[in-house]
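Contributing new records

If you add data, match the layout below exactly. Sequence lines come first and carry their own label; structure lines follow with theirs. Keep one chain per record. Anything else will be rejected by the validation script.
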Amino acid sequence: MAEPETHPAQGSGELDESLLRAISHPLRHRLLGMLDGRTASPNQLARELDLPLGRVSYHIRLLNDLGAIELVRTEPRRGALEHFYRAVTTVWFSEADWQKLPRSARRGILGQNLQHIFGSVTAAADAGGFDSASSVVLRAPLELDEQAQTEIAELLRETIERAREINLRAAERRSNGNGAATTASELAILHYEMRE
């Protein structure tokens, strides 16, 4: 099961082999996803993940060295500098890149993504996150042939790409001071084969 496709921020096409190997690590994949659309420091990320700062910092350095993230700013903190990063490469793999990963890496990344989605959905449901009129919960049991499966996969990838474009325009409005107050939200799309 491939992740939705988006292309690296620096251009389209397949991911560089070294970057592909780097973000196939489940923690680096997770960190890159956390920095997609926001700026954060390793310290903030370590607290959110409840992991040691040294472990998170190590993986952030690797992502930075590979050009997957970039340093945005530094702020003085108790005699040291706190570094803030943002993603410049998307966390999603193209179909071709996804197939290059070992099965164990694909399952690790998939498991981590599903765990995040289920945890986020549960927390949102408990806190009234689905009360807004803009919230959407849809389900469509399907029986598809191979061509229809390909068409559905393409539709869902296009939907994610369009949502990312809308998010970028909202970020531009915020940075220009033209944006209204924002609400953090998450879009998760699942399409999978039913198995007994």
